[in-house]
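Structure tokens please, single chain.
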Amino acid sequence: MQARAPRPAAGVALDAAVAVVVLALPVTLWATGAMPFVPWGAAATVISCAALFWRRTHPTVVLAVTAVLGVADTAAAAPGGALLLPLAIAVYTVVSLGDRRLGLLAAAGSAVVLDGVLLLRGASPGSGVVAAVPLLLAVAAVVGLVVAARRAELASARDRAARAEATREAEASRAVAEERLRIARELHDVLAHQVAVVGVQSGVAETLLVDDPDAAREALAHVRTASADALRELATLLDLLRRGDEEAPERAAPAPSLARLDELLDAVRATGLRVEVRVEGDARPLVPVVDLAAYRVVQEALTNAHKHGTGRARLTLAWTPAGLGVEVVNPVPREAAGGVAAAPSTGHGLLGMRERVAAVGGTLDAGARGGEFVVRAELPAPAPAPAPALDPTSPEEPR
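Here you go.
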């Protein structure tokens, strides 16, 4: 066993106290004459007791010293057992510090050797000294095992607590990251459309300001309306973030959903984007998160069509038994089709759409195809199972 780490001051004081207390017992017996004073035995006893000061920093060495001196003293002096207590403490220390195999073997071997030496020196097999040797060493080993088990249990509990704390910190960090992503996505969804309208209409107003003042004023009216809508939606979102969902203000607008699709289309068309809408299949209510995802996909796709397209877009809502397909197609300007972007874009809109659709278990595909830019999302929306038909021939249940 290797040397242990340096002891703290409290550990040094405890080990010194143990060595002094153990040495005080034979000194008292010598002083009262209860045990004969033998110079060799006294020297061995002092060395064994002093060695206990290093029992936790060098447990194996201390065990060897106390065992060898105990056997030597027993073989050379009158049977008094003065070195049995230091040996027992050394056995306990080795076992409690984790080297159980060495400690148990040392206890068993020392008991056999010491009792053998005692019997050879004429001690009676039934004498108290012969019985005390294995009993005391066995008790020391058992106490060491109990202490080692307790230490292992405490170490395991501390390790579990540390892992639990690390897990909580990781979960908290993940929750913060997810919340930041959600806030960023909501801010983008709330502002991107209105800011795009402001940018396009202000450009229109600047172009027509001299040649067609009436059209320029109309474009500026759209800018004013879009700016007011953006500020109102931003204020609502910030209020929600400050108060929390449970304390949402009563003045907050209804959550975006396909039920408000006509309002979105009217606002988009008012900015000059011509949108053709086609619905396939029978519409049905959606889960709120899926409904919100569908609305945001339409909003972002139409915003992109307005910013980067040619002024036209086609929206298709395809209802199937398994879900809802949302597709927005707009022609791509020639310069964009040739590899030059029609307008600057960060790409955050498409990324936000992908994350939102993936969060509800759907898929999204977006890209240029044959002169058109296509955004298609597949959202899970299984049709409810039909209610079981009642059998008219079955007897009516008693009321």
